[in-house]
Amino acid sequence: xxxxxxxxxxxxxxxxxxxxxxxxxxxxxxxxxxxxxxxxxxxxxxxxxxxxxxxxxxxxxxxxxxxxxxxxxxxxxxxxxxxxxxxxxxxxxxxxxxxxxxxxxxxxxxxxxxxxxxxxxxxxxxxxxxxxxxxxxxxxxxxxxxxxxxxxxxxxxxxxxxxxxxxxxxxxxxxxxxxxxxxxxxxxxxxxxxxxxxxxxxxxxxxxxxxxxxxxxxxxxxxxxxxxxxxxxxxxxxxxxxxxxxxxxxxxxxxxxxxxxxxxxxxxxxxxxxx
Length: 275
Known about the structure:
275 residues, alpha/beta, Rossmann fold, 9-stranded mixed β-sheet, two-stranded antiparallel sheet
């Protein structure tokens, strides 16, 4: 039954994509402007995030989606663009984001309680216009809830943002936008880096095992779909192209958490990681 449902969904999606793309020549745009996400290996791999298009970033928890989001927000707000973040589960940490470089006075943060509120808020922001980036974060929403979003919603978002300077960014655990997205990127965690605590390094005896602090992680990004073209290039529409790159993310600490983290182990309450 699952395979039949998946096949039916793919068929409906393909039909809708062809019917929406042909009249408005969505795939025949001559130039697509891109902007950097702020992570050099990913920018080299993808060429940047396309304006006037939907970009989907998906992957399991701890794969680097939140770090990608914050880095992109920092890149765009530093460029004096007004951005909007629709936080479906109210999980965004503005203090960590500001530490990285996000200009909070350039950011509209919409805090939602569920996916339905997040979709409605995203629709209003797209229709309002004026944003350089609109990010819809469904990363902490259960996958079954994200899968239940009707396909017409993603098609409507794609059409509404087309021919605008807005970058529409979707973050989730599984690919849901499918052919509605011009760029689809899958993130996976490869390796975790740990840092010795000062107590462990000095050889002091502790009542528990010497702790380690999270120092960062290495992830892999793979291009699943790329339907954008750069200036002077022939039209391209590639599915499952398989281009990938490894990149490293560092843990972001604010001063108070860093002071606490120096004297506690990873198994204690004080050693916390900012997402």
